[in-house]
Design goal:
This protein has 216 residues and is of the alpha/beta class. It contains six helices and eight strands; from the N terminus they run αβαβααβββαβββα. α5 links the parallel β5 and β6. The N and C termini lie far apart (60 Å).
Length: 216
């Protein structure tokens, strides 16, 4: 970058960073972030797992088709379903061949659930959408941080269990579902520059301030 101005150097550096972080295999990101391997679903060998997951997804779909989800915002339906799925699983344990447990991992960010089966684990994100045929950048996102490392503690399969939703606020119904293997998915990095309050309110940045003083 010899001969370039500071602005031009940063522009070139940021351009190279953005180009480097496009269409990265999701397993690579998980491995770097958690030091755990992402295993693929084998359509033949993993048929018992896929069959059990299908049984669970069918039950969730029928349950919340017959009993609408009374939530006002579609964005909150995913949160509702991730909390309900372990309850649905517990109520029908006897119907599964290899699934042993479904744990809501809590907190924020990927993944929502850990699904234990004979011989392994599936880490899953629960999604709800009214537009499965259209996309936006945050339909699925992964933040590599301490929270994720606490959740993903073992090698395993990774999936999105997405429910297709119809209806209107306080009357959403599940009308379908899709199970996706995240080992086949690529992700893009979204560059974000952050500053905390100490930085944005530092003395040299504040132009003017007024603080109302309360009388004791």
């Amino acid at each position: 970058m010899c001969g370039l101005s500071e602005i031009e150097q940063y522009r070139e550096l940021i351009r190279r960073i953005l180009e480097a972080f496009q269409d990265i295999s999701f397993p690579v990101i998980v491995k770097v972030a958690t030091d755990r391997d992402v295993e693929s679903f084998d359509p033949i060998e993993d048929q018992p797992i896929i069959s059990d997951l299908s049984t669970l997804a069918d039950e969730v779909m029928h349950t919340y088709y017959n009993t609408p989800i009374r939530i006002k915002r579609i964005n909150e339906v995913s949160n509702f379903l991730e909390k309900e799925i372990p309850k649905v699983f517990d109520a029908m344990r006897g119907k599964f061949v290899v699934l042993k447990n479904v744990v809501n991992l809590g907190g924020s960010g990927y993944p929502n659930l850990r699904i234990d089966y004979t011989g392994g684990h599936v880490y899953a994100d629960v999604k709800a959408t009214m537009r499965p045929d259209r996309g936006s950048a945050r339909d699925f996102y992964f933040t590599a941080g301490v929270e994720t490392k606490k959740k993903v503690t073992k090698d395993g399969k990774h999936a999105v269990l997405g429910f297709i939703i119809h209806g209107s606020p306080s009357n959403y119904r599940t009308v379908g579902w899709k199970l996706s293997d995240l080992s086949k998915v690529s992700v893009k990095a979204k560059t974000e520059f952050n500053a905390d309050n100490l930085e944005i309110y530092k003395k040299e940045a504040v132009i003017k301030e007024i603080i109302f003083k309360l009388h004791s």
